[in-house]
Amino acid sequence: MNVLLTIILAAQMLTALAMIGLILIQHGKGADMGAAFGSGASGSLFGASGSANFLSRTTAVLAAVFFICTLALAYFGNLRAPESGSVLERAVVAPPPAPAASGAAQIPGTAAPAQSGATATPAAPAASGAAQIPTK
């Protein structure tokens, strides 16, 4: 099923790009006015009116293929089993945060509070800011 979806998606993208190219190549309705006064359109590859017929028919065929691919992708996209509930109900619940330390323990570079009965020596503050810039 996954390979089929990939093939249909590739066909849809290729037809879209081909349609863009063909539409940009085609002349507008006002361009035919110059051909009526002999501007040399008869010397083109498809003849005087062959180019408009060929390009417009090719564009119509590519548009039909594009719409069929779009309908097929929509059909296969809706074949999944229906899921009940809300998207928010299926969200992953993060574990609760650890209890926050209070007071001096929140300040970076300070030592943890001393335990009862033990004497702790004050830790040197961590180097930050200008202390991290090397000197010459």
From TrEMBL:
Coiled-coil ranges per UniProt: none
Family according to the record? Belongs to the SecG family.
Look up and give the organism this protein is from. Answer: Ramlibacter tataouinensis
Official protein name in the record: Protein-export membrane protein SecG
Tell whether Cell cycle is among the UniProt keywords.
no
Instruction: Tell me the keywords, alphabetical order.
Output: Cell membrane, Membrane, Protein transport, Translocation, Transmembrane, Transmembrane helix, Transport
Biased composition (Low complexity) is annotated at 100-136
Role noted for this protein:
Involved in protein export. Participates in an early event of protein translocation.
Q: Which PANTHER family match?
A: PROTEIN-EXPORT MEMBRANE PROTEIN SECG
What the entry lists under Pfam families is as follows:
SecG
